[in-house]
Amino acid sequence: MRRQPHWGGAWVAQRGRFAGSIHIDANPVCAAIANPTIEEEIQTEESLDLPWQVVVHNDPVNLMTYVTMVFQRVFGYPREKAERHMLEVHRKGYSILWSGVRERAELYVQQLHGYLLLATLEKVD
Amino acid sequence: MEICRGDDELEISELDPFLAELLRQIPASTNPEESPAAEQRLFSRPADKGEKESCAEWKLYVEPELRKLFRTATETVASDLQQLNGNERPFANRTLRIPAKHADAWLSALNQARLVIAAKYDFTEGELCDHYRSPIGSRRDLSLFQVNFYGFLQEFILREISGCGEKRSD
Questions:
Q1: Size of interface A-B (CB pairs under 8 A)
Q2: Among A56, A82, A122, B42, which residue has the fewest nearby CB atoms (within 10 Å)?
């Protein structure tokens, strides 16, 4: 059974429960050691909640360099990968930036909106 | 206009009164009020229309946080812009110094302003790529110039924070 969507939950999670394992600068090994129970909870949710995807849509106003920087910051992608996605958005109209558990996808969408990109959360068909 | 990077700041000098005025207009330009298109662009849907529950929860929980985030960035920029409000000669060129730690706030405010103006005037992609159009003609032309000028500043800030810019030699 799929968990009901709740942005509020993910929003709270960003500032607390899952913060250690979501921020791109965090060390996942340290986070796992510090919070073994939380890690177990995430794995359980992952197994129940696959798959969702984060889609970024084209916008003629946002600068290409800006979009590339946002992809690097939010997803921790290397510059080349970030540029590939940026160009895909530009040429194809959209790009799937990430797929996986819903809660993390929600968080990525929130971060992308914070950078004013057109991003949506979509269930994989 | 000259732009360069110091140790902990970005400096925009030789700002003529026209460009200084465009900079002063950044905070006001981020306001989407009275334009549903601009409001919709700044606070776009996080999921398909069919996901009504998700969209409703987003409005309730996330949108207020986004508004706060955008407002904070704009306030930082407005505070930096106070430098342009001195009682110097009215038509003298000005200098603006942006602390490096405010770079993200500037990127956000400039982006907000560009998106709001572009949404209000419904600029086409072709218009947005027309960097040689004169700002003197109509309010629309001036707004297009404003979008491109803010974009130029964004590019400059991005280059500087990624370490690709040239440092000022004192």
A1: 76
A2: A122
